[in-house]
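By convention, each integer encodes one residue's backbone shape. The lines below illustrate.
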Amino acid sequence: MGAVPKTGKGGHARRDELPSTLQRSEQKAQDTFAKTYDSALESYADDESRAARTAYASLKHSYEKVGDHWEPKEERGPSDERAAEGRDSSQPTAGGVDAKASKAHLYKRAQEMNIRGRSKMDKDELVEALQKANDAATRKARGD
């Protein structure tokens, strides 16, 4: 049996088919992921893993992960060096954190997430701390 499409008859995302972080995000984020996933699935001969990576890459151009959900970015574009260089890059992913954002923006997100020690962190440390906080928030929301 093939993969289940992420979009329904109305062209909107089927919430029950989305990752939990997207289920807690706005409709546009859900639709962006779902439509890209379905298109990639057709292109990549039912390779679900590759379709999911493609859908997340598309989502990360417009959205950043904040805690247990995705929020619109201040500026569209790649979220990290890996996204900027393409899928074959050896660079690590920033896990949905907008690592290309300004240090001020990352600091503001760290404040929102109540990350301790943020005032002494450089930009790379803020990205890493936000990744950890996002992962913890997602685990908590899932009940893990």
